[in-house]
Amino acid sequence: MAAISKNSIKAVIGLGNPGKQYEDTRHNIGFKVVDHFLSTLKGEIKIYEKFSGLYCFKNIGGEKIHFLKPLTYMNLSGIAVKKLVASELLKPQEIIVIHDDMDFELGTVRLKIAGGSAGHNGIESVIESIQSNDFIRLRVGIGRTQNDMKEHVLDKFNQDELDILKEAVKLSIDAIRLTLARDIHASMNIINAIKINNNKTGVQN
């Protein structure tokens, strides 16, 4: 695994599926986090269709940071990521990929360095396309179900989940800010220790 230095993140990538029918589904939480993060930034942001996705960039802390939402559908996310990485000469450890994760309950947000795909087709596509698993992941929990898994990830969040989702998105935004400003290990120690109370909305240390 390649070393990741302080302030090394140069690209933020949110995974999801394009199209109105997929908006607000569990599988699209990566898109949602990127959208909400960009909405917190000052100044005009121009979004382009580029790298087989919706792309923009912003100067943050004196660094040009790239943002990408692949439009290739989840299972082919790596096509878009590879185009961005190749064009901007990015190293795998300079990108953070945001995705839904069934291994964590809704409200859990975790930073992770490298590793396998854990069965996530979007992450598997990225690994295969850039021939590396050394990128950072921001894993946003959506929980599991006893019903069909494909239906679960493509379902929209229900009304009871929306308050928890809102807190999870806020925490995800904090995680991105930290990874852009601090050493990734320090960021992990902070974010991975935070728990969102699923019974009553709120953040617990």
- What is the average per-residue confidence, as pLDDT, rounded to a whole number? 91
The low-confidence parts are none
* Whole-angstrom Rg: 16 Å
Main β sheet profile: 7 strands, mixed
Overall tally of domains: 1
Task: Write a structural description.
The protein is α/β, with parallel strands linked by helices and 205 residues long. The protein has one domain: Rossmann fold (3-Layer(aba) Sandwich), CATH 3.40.50. 32% of the residues lie in helices and 22% in strands. Strands 2-3-4-1-5-7-6 form a seven-stranded mixed sheet, sandwiched between helices. The chain starts with 10 loop residues before the first strand and ends with a strand.
Structural key phrases:
205 residues, alpha/beta, Rossmann fold, seven-stranded mixed sheet, two-stranded antiparallel sheet, 32% helix
